[in-house]
Amino acid sequence: MAEKTKKPVRILLLVGDLYGANCTSSEKKLSILDKFRTYGWVATLAGVGRTVRPCAFAAERGAVPLDVDVTVDDIGDVTAYDAVSVLPGPAYSGLIGSTAALRLIRQANEAGLIVSGWCRGVRVLAAADVIAGRKIVGHLDDRAAIEKAGGLFVGQDHPPVIDGHLVTGARCYHYRAKNAEAIRAAIEARRASR
Q1: What is the DSSP code string of 82-101?
Q2: What does the chain look like in DSSP terms, one character per residue?
Q3: Protein fold of 10-193
């Protein structure tokens, strides 16, 4: 009998109003997008608008505005993906204010997809109401939002945490590879259990 060919992992990457330097530009380490590509994953970049600007820090390092593959309003069935990940950046009012973005995250969570938030992206997970009772790594200034949404704040200077099908991590420059590996491990565990 022929061995089944594994379908490549499909990950939906939600990018906020401004994207962080770790998303695409890198100095000595692979960017988040490059890291996912080394896994052979199919990454779809999504935002509220068609173009997302880099934060000031990323722009200083040569990052340019990104055209997303699809807007959150144009995504149909989120279960076509294995995971949904909110990329790092300093501003998320667009995603938090988007009923489509929050619906996608809630649907992914309810379907048992891997849902992750990088750095301040946990704000979006809190707004989507998917962190209650879960251990969450985030920035100190996001602690109140995490706890208000029922999340259990672990800390900022902490390796990524996998809690069920939720993965959170902060300090993307320092923990970038570990955050990506935690998402990968969670996806592999989910695929193995099906």
Answers
A1: SEEEE---SB-HHHHT-HHH
A2: -PPPPPPPPEEEEE--SEE-TTTS--SSS--HHHHHHHTT-EEEEEESSSEEEEPHHHHHTT---EE-SEEGGG---GGGSSEEEE---SB-HHHHT-HHHHHHHHHHHHTT-EEEEEGGGHHHHHHTT--TTSEEE--GGGHHHHHHTT-EEEESSS--EEETTEEEE--HHHHHHHHHHHHHHHHHHHHHH-
A3: Rossmann fold (3.40.50)
Region class of 31: left (phi > 0), else alpha (psi between -120 and 50), else beta: beta
Q: 29-78: per-residue pLDDT in tens?
A: 678 888 898 999 999 999 999 999 999 988 998 889 999 999 999 998 99
d(CA 169, CA 175): 8
**For residues 46 and 39, what is the distance between their CA atoms, to the nearest angstrom?**
20
Does 3 score more than 80 pLDDT?
A: no
The pLDDT tens digits for 111-133 are 999 999 998 999 999 999 999 99
Q: pLDDT averaged over the chain? A: 91
